[in-house]
From TrEMBL:
Pathway stated in the Swiss-Prot or TrEMBL entry: Carbohydrate degradation; glycolysis; pyruvate from D-glyceraldehyde 3-phosphate: step 3/5
Family note: Belongs to the phosphoglycerate mutase family. BPG-dependent PGAM subfamily.
Annotated function: Catalyzes the interconversion of 2-phosphoglycerate and 3-phosphoglycerate.
Listed GO MF terms: phosphoglycerate mutase activity
Protein name: 2,3-bisphosphoglycerate-dependent phosphoglycerate mutase
Record key words, sorted: Gluconeogenesis, Glycolysis, Isomerase
EC number, as in UniProt: 5.4.2.11
Source organism, top-level taxon: Bacteria
Active site: residue positions: 9, 87
Residue ranges that the Swiss-Prot or TrEMBL entry lists as coiled coil: none
Residues flagged as site, Transition state stabilizer: 177
Length: 230
């Protein structure tokens, strides 16, 4: 049985400040580094050997991945980084405090922005002018994304880079972001559009799937530590 592990990065400075983050490159806090280390320790005990690690181009995920690989003694494996695994783009909301937006726009609007499948946050005027995206045409870079839009750029990555590896029996580790992982969980577990708003992914908490040769779930386990907070 092949194994797929999903892991959300440790706490970032923006998580700590309760700010919308998306593609903002917020670094890990000390607590975030600790959570990554703890996730690595939990994974080491499973003795899973990975063939590849997939992550985004955002430093909170890359740093978490580095810490985990070090902890599990597998820093030698290939690490693939793709903007397709970036967090969902929060558009003009990024940098704003979530509680402040609740006061100004109301709980219902904030719940839609944060957890609905199709609601698009307010657009930024321009796409991100950051050199890590310069190789891509403006037309494919978002100015804000619903979870559905994020899913539409994440699933092709799954189909091209992850599923073929799993079908060859190669265990895969994905270190990414709350909504990137919600999109993948929705796809893997075939969760309805209306039900996905109830799915939360905690920082630094590995989710292990055992999959059969058609990539159907045989077993799922969440490795919680005593510090896991949803
Ligand atoms: O701000 C963000 O980018 C995400 C993840 O931290 O937050 P939320 O839980 O609101 O989708």
């Amino acid at each position: 049985m092949v194994k797929l592990v999903l892991l959300r990065h440790g706490q970032s400075i923006a998580n700590k400040e309760n700010e919308y983050t998306g593609w903002t490159d917020a670094p890990l806090t000390k607590k975030g580094e600790f959570q990554a280390k703890e996730a690595g320790e939990l994974l080491r005990k499973t003795k899973i050997t990975f063939k590849q690690l997939h992550t985004s181009v955002l430093s909170r995920a890359i740093k978490t991945a580095d810490i985990v690989l070090d902890q599990i003694g597998q820093s030698n494996i290939p690490v693939l980084k793709s903007w397709r695994l970036n967090e969902r783009h929060y558009g003009a909301l990024r940098g704003l405090n979530k509680n402040w937006t609740r006061k100004v726009y109301g709980d219902r609007q904030v719940a839609l922005w944060r957890r609905s499948f199709t609601t698009v946050p307010p657009l930024m005027d321009e796409t991100d002018n950051d050199r890590r995206y310069h190789a891509y045409p403006q037309s494919i870079l978002p100015r804000a994304e619903s979870l559905k839009m994020a899913s539409d750029r994440i699933i092709p990555y799954w189909v091209d880079k992850i599923a073929p590896q799993l079908l060859h029996g190669n265990n895969q580790l994905i270190v990414a972001h709350g909504s990137t992982l919600r999109a993948l969980i929705k796809y893997i577990e075939e969760i309805d559009d209306e039900e996905i708003d109830g799915v939360e992914v905690a920082n630094g908490t590995p989710i292990i799937y055992e999959l059969d040769n058609k990539l159907r779930i045989v077993k799922e386990k969440i490795l919680k530590s005593e510090h896991t907070i949803y």
